[in-house]
Amino acid sequence: MRSAARVGVAALAACVASGLAAAADLKRAQEIVEGKCFICHGAEGESSSPVFPRLAGQHAQYIARQLADYASGRRKSSAMQPMVEGLSAADFVSLGAWFEQRPARQHAVDDPELALVGRFIYARGNPYSGVPACASCHGPGGQGTATLPRLAGQHAAYTERQLKQFNQRERSNDNQVMHAVASRLTELEAKAVASYLSGLP
To answer: For a disulfide at 99, which of 55, 82, 150, 176, Cβ 3.0-4.6 Å?
Structure first.
């Protein structure tokens, strides 16, 4: 009986310690955000400039991997490389968890008619040119997965720029599927899909 009680107390202590560790990680992440990230991405991950992505609600694992890729040079960015200097892999994980917990907001699209074209391409692709449906990987609502980014609510201009970088092989840290897809999109299709995604909740 005493043995069972000791096990129970030990388990409880482990849970408390785990919770404190998680809280410490999030506190560390907030310190980093307030010291660096907020300048471009906003205090709550809701960047107001289309130059920088909105990170609120983005998948924690995806953010951590992108930060690690910036640190290793697998993903190039003159803006991001200096920001990750001095940060650890644990910091990347903590930042991912922190941003994932920020509430994402819904935004109005700038061109609703263009967004309607984008909705068709996103959901069904373009069977005449071989463009697959974006939803087949990123999900019907643009929510993505732990390994694929959440696209819903992203700045249209940012999404469009990423598609161009995939097409031009300037972004090479992610899978080859995006290179093939982006190379088949017309400029109109890329703009339309980006517009549609920007308005998703």
So the answer is: 55
